[in-house]
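Re: the multi-chain job from yesterday

Posting the exact lines I submitted so nobody has to dig through the queue logs.
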Amino acid sequence: MTARDVLPIVVVVALLALIPPLVSSNTVLNFLVFTLIIALAAQGWNILGGYGGQYSFGHAVFFGTGAYATAVLQVHAGLNAWLTFGLGIAAGALVGFVIGFLSFRSGLRGSYFALVTLAFAEVFRIVANAAGLTGGAAGILIKLDVRPENFQFQSRGAFVWIGLGLVAAVLLATRAIERARFGAYLTAVRENEDAARALGVDPFRVKLAAITLSAAVTAAAGCLYAQYFLFLDANIAYGAWISVEALVAPIIGGIGTVFGPLVGALALQGLGHLTSHVAGEVPGIDLVVFGVLLIVMVAFAPEGIVGLLARLRRLGRRRPAEAT
Amino acid sequence: MKIASNTGEELSMSERPLNVSRRKFLQSSAAGAALAATGSVAMPGVLRAQAAPIKVGVLQPVTGALAYDGQQGRIGAELAIRDINAAGGIKALGGAKLEMVFGDARSTPEGGTQEVEKMQAAGVAAIVGGFASPICLATTQAAARYDLPYIVDVGVSDQIVKRGLKNTFRFGPGFGTVATQALDNLARINDAAGKPAKTVVLVHEDGLFGSGLAKLMAAELPKRGFEVLEMIAHPTPTRDMSNVALQIKAKNPDLVIPSSYYGEFVLLSRTMQQQRIRPKGIYAVLNGAASNFRFVKEFPEAANHVMDCNHWHDPRKPKALELRKEVEGKGNFWTYNIPMNYSAVLLLADAMERAKSADRAKIIEALAGSTFAGHIMPYGPTKFADGQNTGAAPVNTQVQGNDIKVIFPETFADAKPVFPVPA
Amino acid sequence: MFSPEIVITAVLNGLLTGAVYALVALGLTLVYGVLHIINFAHGALLTTAMFGVLVLRLGFGIDPYLAILVLTPAFYLLGYALQRFVIGPASHGSDANILLVTLGLAIVIENALLAVFRSDTRSIDVPYAFESVDIGIALLALPRVIALAVSIAVALAMWAILALTDIGKAIRAVAKEKLGAALVGIDVAHVYAVTFGLGTASLAVAACLLMPTFYVTPRVGNAFVFVAFTIVVLGGMGSIPGALVGGLFIGVVESLSGLYFGESLGQIGIFLIFIAILLFRPTGLFGARA
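And the result, structure tokens for all chains:
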């Protein structure tokens, strides 16, 4: 990676990091924390779906595993919250590895892969809803004890920074993958698996690595959710909502790009609040807008917001050149 | 010192420290006292006699899976605010009017939390509502950060009041109370009828509410002389109740005790009717349908004589009946969410009257010591212990002649139980 | 243990429920077989049709079974239009895009229904709702017996359309070899839209069969769609006989596993079957043309 690779990331993250000290409104900070959680989950999805071309419709399975591992290990094993955060990520990665191993070994692609991930998420949801360890349907509550060593903070700003730190780490990691041989393999597999194999790439191993990494990142989002809201139940952790959020954000933002998930999450969450403000009385209208936007973006800007911006920049650059 | 209007969220946030000093300043002048008490300072109204309105957060899920309940709860809260304002507002605060700040919890905890933040930014004096336990668990905690008083309307999970949150008050009964009451009432109804029922099948949805309740009931029913033949769990949604009905048929119990949501209960009772399964009674607990007029109206035959132990208004209170008539007159169905939220808002208003302030700490104090009897639920005066209204209890209702009647306890009843159900 | 009567009744009930599952799966598998896409809006379209039945009944007093005559052509047209003017153009022929566009459609439809009808649980009362057919060993609900008969009839009709008509031949040609079909002058976009229309029309029938015994909320379709996915995979994606047999099979499996393992875990059974088939036999149990 060169300085030119890293610089935009540093600038964007630094700008976002300035928000907590400048904005005292907790509404904004709370919005930002939630958006960063979604962005992180979406960054995870983007590694597998965006770069690797494997569309998962069940990333909730990783999100939920991270979240539950964090909560259960604290509540039942009495482990420190910072430690469980790491263990949650590891648990998510493990689940990703197993699901990836099973699905990719069977050669599932496209719609089939989408369906199998969806089904795994449902199985986990039903089990979590019935099991005693997860608190069953009553859910699990992490004890409110606001101390930094418990990963609980009085100020929302602290969570913004932690969320931002994780997002920044994944931004850098994604950029590094783009520049590394692994990234080249991954896109080769996305474009044409058979051709990639002919070039000596092992698609199975590449996809397996991608899903494990992807799961770890999305699990981190789950851990952060658990630690921020301190309550989980099966429909939160393994519900279809997060699978959809994790997938829609990169598509709106720019699939297979470093900034896509973050941009998409910010745009969508922002839009959601805007439309629910405008729609006011009528329930559901904001989500109608959400759906329409998804279709419109796929139809007219399949490269997402990041792609649109890049296109504008290219236009802008070309014009002065043409003038001379 | 600029006197700003409370329009933008950011504005009011940055204004908060200012308000405190302004309050101290104004309290010294008699004319300003009422105004200052509202906690947020209104426009040039400083010199007007009319006190500034007090903002009250009403939080309900009106989109997503729980939207129907949220919509009903909102109706209750809105009617209460209307009635309070029509009767002259908060008199101790110079007739200050209540102003609703509505928030849609979107049927999720994080949706609810975001609304709490918005309400906090809008400068509400307190929040009422929540409906579902997961939402209430998250939102009470978010409100606790700001010592923002929070009256839970329904949320039955007992965890809600067991976390030592000082700001959280639950007006209605929790799981434990409902389950014990349901069992006690059942035993009494059964005894009064000459103990016709001995065996029971429990049918419950497998979520938070159904499975928790069923577990409690299975442990407690044998102590009261009932034999539990079977516990049948089903998910929400369930597409087909034939199997559940079949199992009931096989066990042939005297009583069926379902705790499910509306759709599933409707399916179950229809399927039972279809399969000609006629136990001596159907005794629902906190059921979504058995005290729902839509069910009674759409399926009078299947609904007839179903008993329910649930939240319900006090049918002896004229205000409750008047309210029901009004709601029904507007083409809405009457559900327990309406009187519960109506009462919870009245309870809040009463606390403000007694606190003579809209200051959060004072409201919390007033709520904690509240003995409010002006509500329309069958509870008696409120009395809070660790945030739980200890007088809160469910009542038994029964569908009789296309109406829902309270049959137990006798003090609140407007009809006699029909049990065992005539074959 | 359960007595033989109960087990037999459970099997019969499973068949009756499975028939409607099959009908929902029919549309899904048809669309998959030809367009090679998974239509995530399938559940939302089923919900729309169910609200259609409700509105016709409450607003115009039309019996749900008569509503078949109104809703089936209406939904054929709706499906045709959706594919021709929304899904087709918006997805630029990429499978991944189609997944996303249908997902977007599902979100739009579900929430538009929420905005219009609110999330109240609605149902209709028909005079025959509680009629039963007594076959000696079990009481079967009349509306569900009707649903079984009509579902089989629709599956046969669908098969006949594909096997015998000109458009059926065109559909099969496109399903097999899109480019070749285009070369011999078949309007592929039209064929796609017809297929989508047929799939949507079968949902309208399913809705009419469901409403006499079921209820509707803006999200109710999702309850059926997961099962329909399973059936489609089980029967072999694109296979009409597979969908019918798969539907009946899943109905029975769900019914029996519900009886023996409880309804909640019974649902897991379906997903596990689903995952196992995808992983180990993705062409489906009935060896379809995949």
